[in-house]
Design a protein that fits this description.
- The complex is a heterotrimer of chains A (114), B (473) and C (466).
- With 114 residues, chain A is mostly helical.
- Chain A is built from 4 helices and 2 strands, in the order ααβααβ.
- Chain C has 466 residues and is α+β, with helices and mostly antiparallel strands.
- Chain C folds into 3 domains: 310 residues, no CATH class; 77 residues, no CATH class; 56 residues, Arc Repressor Mutant, subunit A.
- A 9-stranded mixed sheet of chain C has the order 3-7-8-11-1-12-13-14-15.
- In chain C, α1 crosses α2 and α13 packs across α15.
- Classes of the chains: A mainly alpha (114), B alpha/beta (473), C alpha+beta (466).
- Chains A and B meet through α1 and α2 of A and α10, α11, α12 and α13 of B.
- β2 of chain A pairs antiparallel with β10 of chain C, so a sheet runs across the interface.
Chain lengths: 114, 473, 466
């Protein structure tokens, strides 16, 4: 952790954006403080020499856990959509010809390709 | 007959002998739930239609058709279209879900106070926390509101509430029980495990819920219950006591092993010696770094696991995530971010290797003392007052100092009641748990030691007062 | 074309020619430095990490999903072995080295078509590395393109924009993808065309994908930069061309970018890391994202999946499963059947056609037919191998009498006849409609009962009609 400890090196705003978390400015300040304190505590890891130590990312000790290419029954569309807060519902028959809206989709407010 | 005071094993026997019916069993539990749950707030959701042997399930485990909220506002009203593997396995054994229990939001916390639906209370003293994050499950078992419960343990969330509530809690070896259906917190540490009234119960449930399912790539070996092995005693076993665990100075704000707890644990260890075990001092030199490593690795995995909660396919918007969860997401996002990944995440993963190696050395006869199990405290304090520690997250994190190493190393851990100690504020006696850690895949030995200890004492016969004043036993 | 000719004369030919010269001059000062990323969808039965059917095209929305590919709380991935094998086969066919240890990692970013908020992909430990493929350059020369890596990942859901809303279908979410990344070795659009063609052929040969670009089975992204000609180092910027859904548009975008960047360099402008798309209406590229907003994907090893360990015997097992690949097969055809390179290339376009040809040759031998005869017949008659059997083709050839008319005199006679018999067609041709010659060729083919070679006929006709 050789990065210089400038004041507020924990940039709450930037991290919150990366984490897709809407924070109020109060929260931003509170978290900056709390998390900087936690990061201070974590600094002690620097005391340990881990130069020749392999990182452990998982402890279950297995390899090549794979399955055969077989299919299983999928969720019915109804179940898949069952918890969606907003979905396009079936258009009444008389309007169907005018609007090409189909049921079965999840809906979110417009996003444009980035 | 005190139906609700029976253990799982006793209940199964009684049902077999037709001493009462499943209907009567459920009725008896519903009576108690109706009497005590409002106060305790152990259950978030009660399944009145249950007709099988009633188990309480932590609300981070998916139950088809039954609301599952992870005690978070973001999942209020969420009804999973599928069952977790463990639920299917319990159903096969004739077990039903009597209710979903309260917990810290998304299993993040050590007190139950991070629930969006109010904290659960400790049945031994309603002013105190039951521990967390499996707060509701522990309270439900302790107060006889179910036959047994399932919890989840990422850094002590089964063992610590079990210890603070005077019951048994088991964290299996990582990879023993499928996590399919468990709302993930830290994928490389989480395990589902039993919270029960007795060690034998825990052994039975572990047998039922363990083993591969073709859905969790990390699961391999099933555990098989053997009455002979469970009841074979501790003669000839080597019990390790880590010197680092007792060296933490007492009284320091936010840390330190309460000397009253130290005394209770030492007496428990003496008991094991009386029973025929050999007590050996061991060293786990990297213990003091384990917590720091834990609080990098866990938030990192959390930050990624929480990304799916975007309010599109289910749930509400991300502003509905609670403070502790938000904190960990922030910390984790930071630790994984460009420029910091090596310094934080990879560094912590290297420390994890060292912590794991500490245990391996202690258990290995050729390199260490070759102990069979390692014992010590579960929690540095007994249950504390609701609201006492909630302002400083770091203070809360330090409660996990004895339990997190087992999750980092992937080894199994059991908490068994081993006595009582006066609360720090002097008010009454509160439960203390003895932690028993074992080699990877060796739940058998820790359960064996736990059983022998349990049967040689009467702690399990104590029941909580369910009042605001703790009565001395 | 015609409208430009008239404006030429309006503006004064000299001015425009001056412009062309200027462009030519600066185009020669700079050379393109282009790398390509191809994503190919595998045709496994089930998805990459769950057992949903991977055959999602044209299905009702959200009917091929499960907790895993929907990203529901508690769901976990489980690797499809077939997909891994397919990826390794692709790597072997591209002369890659197969890694001994390979890990999946999480690529974290937020987008509505990404249900988990991360894509399970590979980063530091890809399955295949350091391969190469030869492609044909603009002058027919062979160009070696180095393959940096071929790795495994999962596809996202599909977004459709309807007014102020975006509709999401997760049927495609979780379908296995292989991503192939080249080094920036491309210098010309012709090389890119051939690369895409060869890759598509490779995937079909291996049987791992339909590689149909219209259906989205195969997608292309380009990284384009330019540098002064003759220099060696990589430019300090590049422009990513993304989200361009047709190969034709991608090529247009690349050509446009080369020109735009060349002019910018020459004007002394500084170019930076950008992502651009293609505007088909305005026929230009446009900025989508600049460096400042570049993603920080926070890659870390996927804790829900175990590492993949591949030893030499695993690789060997897959190596022997590879079919004879196009180039090798083509060379063999040239030698074994005395075919021209061109004929060999046509007949090895697909495994099915090549097999059909060899079957017909085998059968034809019994009837005294030469391989060359069979080749010509199949090529010239554009035999639809789905509708006939090799044996039938052999019978047809035999019935029409054997062989090919080589005698130029005879061919010329038939050509002259065709010209005389089709004055209108001849008139069209001489007026400038060059495609009219096909009708004349067709007439000669009929006269010769298919025994003439169209290329030869064409040359004769062109000479006659000059």
């Amino acid at each position: 952790m050789r990065k210089p400890k400038i004041i507020g090196f924990f940039d709450s705003k930037k991290v919150a954006r990366l984490a897709n978390l809407p924070l109020t400015s109060e929260e931003e300040e509170k978290y900056s403080e709390q998390l900087s304190k936690i990061l201070d505590y974590i600094e002690q890891l620097n005391k340990v020499d881990t130069k020749d130590v392999e990182p452990t990312f998982n402890v279950s000790g297995q390899a090549n856990v794979m399955r055969k290419d077989t299919m299983d029954v999928c969720l019915p569309q109804e179940d898949a959509l069952s918890n969606a807060p907003q979905k396009k519902n079936a258009v009444p028959a008389r309007l169907a010809a005018k609007r090409a809206v189909r049921q079965g989709f999840f809906v979110t407010k417009g996003v444009f390709k980035v | 007959m005190d139906i609700t005071g029976l253990t799982l094993a006793e209940t199964l026997k009684a049902l077999k002998n037709k001493e009462f019916s499943l209907e009567e069993l459920n009725k008896a539990y519903f009576v108690r739930i109706d009497k005590y749950n409002t106060e305790l707030n152990a259950y978030l959701n009660i399944n009145r239609g249950n007709s099988k042997i009633p188990a309480a399930i932590k609300d981070v485990i998916s139950t088809r058709g039954i609301p599952t909220t992870a005690a978070s506002k973001i999942l209020e009203g969420f009804i999973p279209p599928y069952d977790a593997t463990v639920i299917g396995k319990l159903t096969e054994q004739g077990i039903g879900v009597i209710g979903k229990t309260n917990c810290d939001e998304f299993a993040m916390g050590s007190s139950g106070e991070n629930s969006a639906f109010g904290p659960t209370k400790n049945p031994w003293d309603l002013n105190k926390v039951p521990g967390g994050s499996s707060s509701g499950s522990a309270a439900a078992v302790s107060a006889d509101l179910c036959v047994f419960a399932l919890g989840s343990d990422t850094g002590g969330s089964i063992r610590q509430p079990a210890s603070l509530c005077g019951i048994v809690g088991l964290k299996p070896t990582y990879g023993r029980v499928s996590r399919y259906g468990l709302m993930a917190m830290a994928s490389s540490l989480d395990q589902i495990g039993p919270i029960t009234k007795s060690v034998e119960d825990a052994t039975l449930v572990l047998d039922w819920i363990s083993g591969s399912d073709g859905y969790d790539s990390n699961v391999s070996k099933k555990f098989t219950y053997s009455e002979d092995k469970l009841k074979s005693g501790v003669k000839g076993l080597k019990v390790g006591v880590p010197k680092e665990y007792f060296a933490v100075p007492a009284g320091r704000q936010g840390g330190g092993l309460d000397p009253k707890i130290k005394k209770v644990i030492e007496e428990a260890i003496k008991k094991l010696e009386e029973l025929g075990a050999e007590i050996v001092e061991v060293s786990l030199p990297h213990s003091k770094y384990a917590l720091a490593a834990y609080y990098i690795i866990v938030p990192s995995e959390v930050s990624s696991n929480m990304a799916r909660y975007d309010g599109i396919r289910f749930g509400l918007g991300r502003e509905n995530i609670g403070a502790e969860v938000k904190r960990r997401i922030m910390l984790g996002t930071f630790a994984l971010s460009s420029g910091y990944y090596d310094e934080y995440y990879t560094k912590a993963a290297r420390i994890r290797t060292l912590v794991k190696q500490d245990f391996e050395k202690a258990f290995d006869p050729s390199t260490g003392s070759g102990v069979d199990v390692i014992v010590g405290p579960v929690s540095p304090t007994t249950a504390w007052n609701i609201g006492e520690k909630i302002d400083d997250p770091l203070t809360m994190y330090l409660q996990d100092v004895y339990t997190i190493s087992a999750n980092l190393a992937g080894i199994p851990g059991l908490s068994v009641p081993c006595g009582f100690a006066h609360a720090p504020d002097g008010a009454g006696l509160l439960p203390v748990g003895l932690q028993i850690l074992g080699k990877q895949w060796d739940e058998e030995t820790i359960l064996r030691v736990g059983y022998a200890y349990e049967q040689s004492t009467d702690w399990r016969k104590e029941k909580p007062s369910l009042s605001s004043r703790t009565c001395p036993p | 074309m015609d409208s430009r000719s008239s404006s030429l004369s309006d503006l004064g030919v000299d001015d425009l020619r001056g412009n062309d010269e200027r462009v030519d001059r600066i185009m020669n000062k700079y050379e393109p430095v282009i790398g390509l990323e191809v994503h190919v969808e595998l045709n496994t039965k089930s998805k990459m990490f769950c057992r949903c059917s991977a055959d999602y095209f044209g299905k009702e929305p959200n009917t091929h999903t499960c907790p895993v590919c929907l990203g529901l709380p508690g769901a976990l991935p489980y690797i499809n072995e077939q997909a891994i094998n397919d990826c390794i086969k692709i790597g072997l066919a591209l002369n890659c080295k197969i890694s001994k240890i390979s890990l999946f990692e999480r690529k974290n970013y937020f987008y509505p078509d990404l249900p988990k908020g991360y894509q399970i992909s590979q980063y530091r430990w890809p399955l295949c590395v350091n391969g190469w493929i030869n492609v044909e350059g603009k002058d027919g020369e062979e160009v070696k393109i180095r393959i940096n890596r071929a790795h495994q990942e999962e596809d996202t859901g599909k977004l459709t924009h309807k007014g102020a809303d975006t509709l999401i279908d997760f049927n495609r979410s979780g379908v296995p993808l292989v991503e192939i990344v080249t080094e920036p070795d491309f210098r010309d659009v012709a090389e890119i065309r051939d690369y895409a063609k060869k890759l598509q052929q490779l995937f079909r040969y291996l049987g791992v994908s339909n590689a149909d670009m219209e259906r989205g089975d195969m997608r292309l992204e380009a990284n384009v930069s330019v540098r002064p000609e003759g220099t060696e180092g990589l430019p300090n910027y590049r422009v990513e061309l993304k989200n361009i859904n047709s190969f034709r548009f991608m090529v247009a975008a690349v050509e446009y970018e080369i020109k735009r960047q060349t002019e910018a360099h020459d004007a002394g402008e500084k170019l930076s890391l950008e992502t651009r798309g293609w505007d088909e209406d305005k026929k230009c590229t446009y900025l989508q994202r600049s460096k400042e907003e570049a993603h920080d994907y926070r890659y870390f090893p996927e804790p829900d999946l175990r590492e993949i360990r591949i030893d030499t015997s695993d690789v060997e097992k897959l190596q022997v499963q590879l079919p004879e690949l196009p180039r090798v097969k083509g060379n063999r055809f040239e030698e074994k059947y005395s075919l021209s390179k061109q004929q060999a290339v046509i007949l090895t376009e697909s495994r099915q056609l090549a097999a059909f040809f060899e079957e017909a040759v085998k059968d034809g031998k019994d009837h005294g037919l030469e391989a060359k005869t069979v080749a010509n017949y199949i090529i010239n008659r554009k035999i639809n191998i789905k509708e006939v059997l090799p044996a039938q083709v052999v019978i047809e050839i035999r019935d029409r009498g054997m062989g090919v008319i080589e005698d130029l005199g005879e061919l010329e006679k038939m050509a002259k006849e065709a010209v005389e018999e089709n004055p209108r067609v001849v008139e069209d041709y001489q007026k400038g409609k060059k495609t009219a010659i096909q009708a004349l060729i067709g007439s000669v083919m009929k006269k010769s009962q298919g025994k003439a070679e169209p290329e030869k006929i064409k040359k004769i006709l062109e000479r006659l009609l000059k």
